[in-house]
Amino acid sequence: MFIQTETTPNPATLKFLPGQTVLEMGTADFPTADAAAKSPLAKAIFAVPGVTGVFFGSDFVTVTKDDATDWDHAKPAILGVIMEHFQSGAPVMDGEGAGSGGHAEHTGDAEDGAIVAQIKDLLDTRVRPAVAQDGGDITFHGFERGVVYLHMQGACAGCPSSTLTLKMGIENLLRHYIPEVTEVRPVAG
C-alpha cells in the first residue's frame, strides 16, 4: 500500500491519500480527540503526539498538528497509523457512524427556501469540490438577512487564507449568482 501526501494551503494541515475510499458518502470532522470516539482510525491518528484535528473526505484524510510539532516527526507516524488501519480491514467509522452530507437544514422563512436551495447547489457544484482538493470542506450553516453562514472543516478550518477564500472567492460567487446574498461569514463548529 502506497499513501501519497499533499500539502494544503494551511501549513498546519497535511492531506493523506491512501489510494482507496475513506468514506462512502459525505465527510467527517474530528476537531478534538473526544470527537473521534466513533472512528477507530481518527482515534489512532489522535494518539500521534501533536495531532490536533482529523478530517475524512471520500478518498483522503487531512491531519492538523499543533505549532510545536514538526511534520518531519509526525508524518511518518501518521503514515504508519493510516497504513496499519487500512491493512487491518477495520472500519473507518464504528457502527452507523457514517459521514455527514454536511449542510444544515434551513430553518428560516419559506421565501428564503429557494435562495437557500440555490446557495447549497452552488456550494455543492462549485465550492466543495475545489476545497476538497485542498483537504477540507465548507458547508452551509444558515442564511439570514442576506448573510450566508458557512462552516469550514478540515484544512479550511484555521487556514491563513480561509478569510480570503470566503470573501474574495465564495462571497463573490454567491453574490454574482444570487443577488439576495450580501455577505458570507464563517461560523465555529
Characterise the protein shown here.
The protein is α+β, with helices and mostly antiparallel strands and 189 residues long. Helices cover 34% and strands 24% of the residues. It is built from four helices and eight strands. The strands form two sheets. A five-stranded antiparallel β-sheet has the order 1-2-5-4-3, with helices on one face. A three-stranded mixed β-sheet has the order 6-7-8. The chain is elongated, with a radius of gyration of 17 Å. It starts with a strand and ends with a strand. The mean pLDDT is 86.
Give structural attributes:
189 residues, alpha+beta, 3-stranded mixed beta sheet, 4 helices, elongated
List the quaternary state of the chains. Answer: single chain
Low-confidence stretches: none
Strand order in space, largest sheet: 1-2-5-4-3
- Give the helices and strands as they follow along the chain: EEEHEEHHEEHE
Strand content: 15-25%
The proportion of residues forming helix, as a percent range, comes to 25-40%
Largest sheet: 5 strands, antiparallel
Structural class: alpha+beta
Please give the count of helices.
4
Gyration radius from CA atoms, angstroms? 17 Å
Separation of the first and last Cα atoms: 34 Å
What is the number of beta strands? 8
Quote the average pLDDT. 86
Gross morphology is elongated
Domain Scaffold protein Nfu/NifU N-terminal: 3-89
Protein name: NifU family protein
Family: Belongs to the NifU family.
InterPro entries: FSCA_dom_sf (IPR034904), Nfu/NifU_N (IPR014824), Nfu/NifU_N_sf (IPR036498), NFU1-like (IPR035433), NIF_FeS_clus_asmbl_NifU_C (IPR001075)
